[in-house]
What does this fold into?
Amino acid sequence: MAMEKVRLTSLNVVSAFDPALSKKTTAARSAHIITGVDPIGRVFIMSTWAKRVDPLVAIDNVFAQCHEWGVNRCAIEAVLFQKVLADLLQERCKVWNRDHPSDKMYSGMFEEVKPAKGKGKEGRIRALIGTSFEEGRIYIHSSMTDFIDEYLHFPIGATVDLLDAFAYVSELWSYGVEEDEIEAFLEREQEELDNRNPITGY
It folds into this structure.
């Protein structure tokens, strides 16, 4: 069976950030996961990260990964965002943009998502596993052992940080765009530019 190549440009790339506000060894880890959805609804897990670090370090890591993969939408749990992160993200954006003028980030890329009513963390994860994974829509590289371990040992594993972030990022999923659709759009855009009046710009 020939290996299929999936173009990054055909994917709708989104992420989710689930920060932990404590660095205690018994606390949850900050987690960030990046996924890409192709035009037929397959979901590719592109990057996973989970560590117990200072929240500012975690935010800078999210910025760096979002820049690397071209993410412009990142889900964050709504209550946590409103109570803790909104101002912190804005301030950290200013620092990041000062230090990385060519790789600007904007706090508006972070979107609040609300958990389904009546479902706790385990319920959210279980609902997602019961659909996307069983349907065979999820693709993950064998090197992402942290995520795979959480999946295999759920719900009795030591951590569920990446699975929880994965449940949040699913709220942003939408289908990607076929390569020929992108090319057709670019051709139409170029044609419109070519037909503009050089004086008026219209």
About this structure: The chain has a mean pLDDT of 83.
